[in-house]
Amino acid sequence: MSERFGERVRAALQARGPLCVGIDPHAALLAAWGLTDDARGVREFGLRTVEAASGRVGFVKPQVSFFERFGSHGIAALEEVLAAARAAGLLVIADAKRGDIGSTMDDYARAWLTPGSPLEADALTVSPFLGVGALAGTFDLAEQQGKGLFVLAATSNPEAESLQRSTDTTGTTVSASIVAEVSARNAALSPRGEWGSIGFVIGATVDWAAAGIVPFAPSAPILAPGFGAQGAAPTDLRPRFGEMSDTVIASESRSILSAGPADLAEAISTRATEYLEVAGV
Amino acid sequence: MSERFGERVRAALQARGPLCVGIDPHAALLAAWGLTDDARGVREFGLRTVEAASGRVGFVKPQVSFFERFGSHGIAALEEVLAAARAAGLLVIADAKRGDIGSTMDDYARAWLTPGSPLEADALTVSPFLGVGALAGTFDLAEQQGKGLFVLAATSNPEAESLQRSTDTTGTTVSASIVAEVSARNAALSPRGEWGSIGFVIGATVDWAAAGIVPFAPSAPILAPGFGAQGAAPTDLRPRFGEMSDTVIASESRSILSAGPADLAEAISTRATEYLEVAGV
After folding, report:
1. Residue B244 resides in a domain
2. Domain count for chain B
3. How far is Cα B114 from Cα A67, in angstroms, rounded to an integer?
4. pLDDT tens, B154-196?
């Protein structure tokens, strides 16, 4: 794995466009798919979604909580799903939103980003509540392994606004500070303007001006939930993300998964095409 | 499980004092204990720590990342440790710092707080980066099941200061907002001044005035890392926590675990006694 994660994201976006298929086997979807509400059900759900996504999109994003609900058996199911997705050539973003300090955080990073680890993914979502600085060891580990991170920066849910728009003594919002700190690190590792491997989670419905965030350099992947069932359409991508549009990974889950297993591949193809048209690749 | 978590914490504090033994099987400690750096090693480490803690303290706090590092086999080991600790009558705080929104967060809560779930604990640490409001479903689920939560409010690590001391439009710090929002909820559920079941993580070395937080009512458990190897001593408990001292669960990990398996029970007894003396129970 010599190529850095940011560059692999760029290649995947160019080849397949921005759609990322969320793998969210929550109870209602398991029932709708005729699957059992247990570890066997989430395994089957995940493997079928990987099969349908393979060759049609560049990215999948398993949501860890839906597997963790079933304890070690659910995590074993997730391991199979992760391995199948990577074997299919998909870039796999483990949506776990882990966040801690020091050696504790380092071991989360090892769990998800070490080649050969049973939970190996290509990238992991992480939470900066304990400070971006507390993720330093995780950044190092990801870089060493050619892996990526997506740091929660500005989420779409209204309950998050008060916290994420709070300001420090210089008047900088929490979201803006996160973007600035991570971008400085990406810049240090991207002397020739390569894409950074530490990206951000920025919701598709976030008002950048209100959140205090501005376009950043070097380019880094933006994982954008909020498309599909949460309200944003493919045609919203360029108006919402402006000059950062080319780095957006648009994540949809329920809007696609609700097609059901028989029609899933077609639903993914249709939606992927809609994104490719607006992406203008 | 008719008694609410907050009241069970109060009873445990009165019976055994504030010491909580962290179960942190990181690689260096596994080596020092002569255990293998794999799922079998963390299982053995956890079970021996539970055995040594049993009858000597009221609380244990397994750190999930050190088990998650080994994927599903590590999580299976954690399930055994959780079950053994609960069977021994210890109150078990799963230190997982999970944080997400909506049905995703709800499933984390189900994983850790549902009676009969393989990962059942008595309480879970959670992160409010997506807003305290995003945890509403988790609060409901915990209450229904007689379980507890510890919401990250003010951590001791210096990297966290800038974010956690940022202020909203009313000048309230992030930490203070979290304490206020959770306390309002506890108050609604504690009409006769019973202890709340949603507690906080507030580091032992946090400067409450600088963090903008003040004593709160009704009483709710404070899980306080930062004792032991991180710098605070049992005699610091009352000076640091003032009128909230009686609700503090003082968490120590490395300082105790470094005693090694043969001397662990004695190390726990000695330290528990030191806390009982300052707690003045």
Report:
1. yes
2. 1
3. 15
4. 998 999 999 999 999 999 999 999 999 999 999 999 989 899 9
- pLDDT category, A2, cuts 50, 70, 90? low
How far, in Å, CA of B253 to CA of B108, rounded?
A: 25
B147 in active site: no
Which one of B73, B86, B97, B165 is the catalytic residue?
A: B97
Select from B155, B160, B166 the Cβ nearest to the Cβ of A167: B166
Long-range contact list for A165-168, CB < 8 A, 24+ apart? A165/A210, A165/A211, A165/A212, A165/B168, A166/B166, A166/B167, A166/B168, A166/B173, A166/B174, A167/A212, A167/B166, A167/B167, A168/B162, A168/B163, A168/B165, A168/B166
**Helix orientation angle between B71-87 and A71-87, rounded to the nearest 10 degrees:** 170
- The residue segments making up the domain with residue B93 are 5-267
pTM over the 0.95 mark: yes
Instruction: Identify the band that residue B278 occupies on the pLDDT scale cut at 50, 70 and 90.
Output: confident
Contact (CB, 8 A) for A9 and A91: yes
Q: What is the DSSP letter of B151?
A: E
Average pLDDT over residues B15-19: 97
**Is there a contact between A279 and A237 (Cβ–Cβ < 8 Å)?**
yes
Average pLDDT, chain B: 96
Under 8 Å CB-to-CB from B221, ≥6 apart: which residues?
A: B6, B9, B148, B150, B195, B196, B199, B200, B247, B249
Residue B218: inside a domain, yes or no?
yes
User: Which of A79, A100, A157 is opposite residue B134, by nearest beta carbon?
Assistant: A157
Task: Indicate which CATH number applies to the domain containing A110.
Answer: 3.20.20.70
Report CB contact under 8 Å: A119, B71: yes
% of chain A beyond a pLDDT of 70:
99
Query: Which pLDDT value is given to residue B79?
Result: 98
Token couple for B64? 């999930």
